[in-house]
Amino acid sequence: MAETTTQVLIPETFQGTTYDIAGQLGLIWELIKAPLIVPLLTVGVYVSLAMSLMLFFERVYMGVVIVLVKLFWKKPEERYKYEPIQDDLEVGSSNFPVVLIQIPMFNEREVYKVSIGAACGLSWPSDRLVIQVLDDSTDPTIKQMVELECQRWASKGINIRYQIRETRGGYKAGALKEGLKRSYVKHCEYVAIFDADFRPEPDYLRRAIPFLVHNPDIALVQARWRFVNSDECLLTRMQEMSLDYHFTVEQEVGSATHAFFGFNGTAGVWRIAAINEAGGWKDRTTVEDMDLAVRASLRGWKFLYLGDLQVKSELPSTFNAFRFQQHRWSCGPANLFRKMAMEIIRTKKVTVWKKFYTIYSFFFVRKIIAHMVTFFFYCVVLPLTILVPEVYVPIWGAVYIPSIITILNSVGTPRSIHLLFYWILFENVMSLHRTKATLIGLLETARSNEWVVTEKLGDIVKNKAAEAAKNKTADANKTKPASKLFKRPRFKFGNRLHLLELGFGVFLFICGCYDFVHGKNNYFIYLFLQTITFLICGFGYVGTIIPSS
User: Fold this and answer.
1) Where would you find the membrane-spanning parts of this chain (predicted)?
2) Of 94, 106, 292, 378, which is the most exposed, with the fewest CB atoms less than 10 Å away?
3) Assigned architecture for domain 76-87+95-317
4) Whole-structure pTM value
């Protein structure tokens, strides 16, 4: 009876040893490979090559234009009307326009003093400056600390206002929109926005505002970001390399050729009339800054990027914080593209060339194709062709094109050229999350409006080093240190694990082993290195590696 039951429950072809099961699976693989797997993978190769060429031509175009801009373009002060606003003892400060400074915050324990202090230190007549701290903090202790800091500066004669809301509706966009509704800002002509970790130099307004005053068609003046903690760990160095290309090339080219680029959300000065004409701040995506920039551009407003006007800021130094930031930065543009593509096509206030640039170059290639081709081609399709040798990948698509793209990407940070190979491997890992976020934004699924504020550590790491030196001196003198430093947050090992990265690390390791035994192209060298990078990120240790200078 037992034998009869066994025969009924287990098919005859699957009885026997493990070797027999492996043989059956191998037979099934051979049966479906030729009619199904090979055609699908071939299509994947062609699609990937097409996307690679799109990205390649985009990078070459940007490279050619930036060279022409640097060699032949006039400086912003020569392309636009520019005259510094001078102090005049006779008329006082009346020749200075009234400027609003907005500083949105959310539980910024470590950096709130930095941004508030920098804003209060701006070289601008105090009666022509309004500083607005928009605090959405949920921690009562932090809210009290921020409010006391505002009161401290107010006691020194600074016109600073502390604003809170009942709810965090609309997140940052909601806070900025609510701030512009206050009666005491109605006489302000321009608004400068700084995130809580940004530290403008005292002459920031004096260098940026004249472009807006003397050029009524300019809506936005954007400054470049600089990073105070770029040398903290390998994670921050990788981010610096990516962002330096964005500012050195993408923003510069957009400003010089089309007077359009994506507002970076901070370190920029807006003409308030342009914000109002474009429809104000909207919270329909997680990139409210890009949303406003595109709407203003479609109404004919121009933007100006000043590469030599720089504002210090902080990079995420933990992998979890960086992942959440990249999700927001990848999902938001894709979701905005979904919402605005037809509006861009239908508008009649801009040229066809600018429409094409916005839709194809700005959105489609840079915000969608760039993420997808990196992940699908180099982390999925190329490894799979090792297991299916019938599918051929031309050497120009697998090696030459990506090498040129990588070299072009490296121009922004020459000091990190020796880290270029690891930057490639790290970007391949992050393309997994960017592709996932891009698809979420395009399909507008549940996480498309997820907003997690990027964790900022301020001067904790620097203070920790100083405290360690102090403690060492104290130990030498056999005295106890006077204070105890706030420690950098530590995470449990379980919180460090990222299963997606670990899973792809295992997949690439299997493909690498197969190529080492059976392959002819020596892809296993790349695959093993990429495996190591996936595993480092999967175990959450990328933020602990200190780069060589």
Assistant:
1) 45-73, 400-426, 497-517, 523-546
2) 94
3) Alpha-Beta Complex (3.90)
4) 0.87
